[in-house]
Amino acid sequence: MIASIQTVKALLDGADRIAVLTGAGVSAESGVPTFRGADGLWKDLRAEDLAHPEAFSRDPRLVWEFYNWRRSLLADCKPNRAHHALAALEAHAPSMLLMTQNVDGLHHAAGSSNVIEMHGSIWRVKCTHCSYTAEDHSPLPELPRCNSCGEMLRPDVVWFGEQLEPGILHSCVESAAHADIFMTIGTSGLVQPAASLADLAKRHGAVTVEINLDPTPNSGLVDFSLQGKAGEILDKLIP
Ligand code: BV8
Ligand code: ZN
Questions:
Q1: What residues have CB less than 8 Å from 153, skipping those under 6 apart?
Q2: Which of 77, 94, 175, 184 is 20 to 30 A from 84, comparing alpha carbons?
C-alpha cells in the first residue's frame, strides 16, 4: 500500500479539481458511532429504522429521543485528524469540494468551508408545517415545537425514502463528473445516491481513490483502494 499512498500523494499535489465524499467513518475517530458498525445501534434499534419519515409519524417522541441522544453525544465530539487533513487539503486546493453524508458538522468545525451536507444537519431543525427553520446547538425538549406556528419540529436531515435537495444532488453530480481526482472516505458505499458518485466520477475520467477501514462495493471499481483508518492514511497523504 505504501506505493499507492506515494502515487496518490503525487496525484493530489498536482490535481486542480478534487472532489471528496465522506461518510460516518471519517467521524469515527472523534467518537461518533457509525451507522452500520457494531456501535451503530441505539436501544437495539438500527439508525435506518429511526431515520425514516414513517418512524417519525408513528412515534415522533422515540425519533426525537434518538436525535437528542445523538446531539448530546456530538456536543462533546471534536474534529479529528481526518477532518483537519481535509481542511488542509482545501487550503492547498481551493477548488476542492467536500461532499459529506454526515450530519455532525465536524468538517465545518475543522475549518472546511467548501462543504455540501448532502443529508442535512443534525444541528438544524425545521417545522413540519411552515417554512420555519433554525440552527440550534442547545438541548431540545422531547417534542420541540415551532416558534412560528406551534406545530412539531423535525431534524433538518434527509431521511431514508426522502429525496435529497435537487440543487444539492446536482452540485454533487457535477463535481464528481468534472473532478481530476475523486476520493471516497469512510463510507460503506451502501446509501444511494451518494454511493454511485465514485462510479460516475470514474466514468467521466477521474482518478478514483477509496480510503476505508473495510472493503466496500466500490473497492473493486476505484483506481486506488487504501484500507485503513482515515486519519492515519490522510495524515500520510496530506502533510
Ligand atoms: C433517495 C441522514 C430517492 C439522517 C442518512 C437505490 C438502490 C437501493 C436503495 C435505494 C436506492 N435509491 C434510494 C434508495 C433507498 C435509500 C438507500 O440508499 N438505502 C440503502 C440503505 C439501501 N436511499 C434513500 O432513501 C435516499 N433517498 O434516494 O431518494 C427518492 C426518489 C423518489 C422519491 C423518493 C425518494 C436518502 C438517503 C439519505 C438517508 N439519510 N442520514 C441521519 O443521519 O440521521 S444516510 C446515513 O447513512 C448517514 O448519512 C450516513 O452517513 C450514511 C451512509 O452511511 P455511511 O456514512 O457509509 O456509514 P456506515 O456506518 O454505513 O459506514 C461507515 C464506514 O466507515 C464503514 O464502511 C467502516 O468500515 C468505515 N470506518 C469506520 N471507522 C473508520 C472507517 N473508515 C476509515 N477510518 C475509520 N476510522
Ligand atoms: Zn411552523
A1: 125, 126, 127, 128, 132, 140, 144, 145, 146
A2: 175
Gap between the Cα atoms of 84 and 79, Å rounded: 7
Contact between residue 239 and residue 19 where contact means Cβ atoms under 8 Å apart: no
Determine the residue of 115, 160, 164, 196 to mutate for testing ligand 1's pocket, defined as the one with the most ligand atoms within 8 A of the Cβ atom: 160
Walk across the sheet containing 224-227 and list its strands: 115-117, 97-100, 18-22, 181-185, 207-212, 224-227
Copy the grid coordinates of residue 116: 455540501
Whether the per-residue pLDDT at 157 is higher than 80: the answer is yes
Ligand 1 lining (C-beta closer than 6 Å): 23-25, 28-29, 34-37, 40, 48, 51, 101-103, 119, 157-163, 186-188, 190-193, 212-214, 216, 229-230
pLDDT digits (tens, 9 = 90+) for 96-136: 999 999 999 999 999 999 999 999 999 999 999 999 999 98
Residue 119 among the catalytic residues: yes
- Specify whether the backbone of 52 is left (phi greater than 0), alpha (psi in -120 to 50) or beta: beta
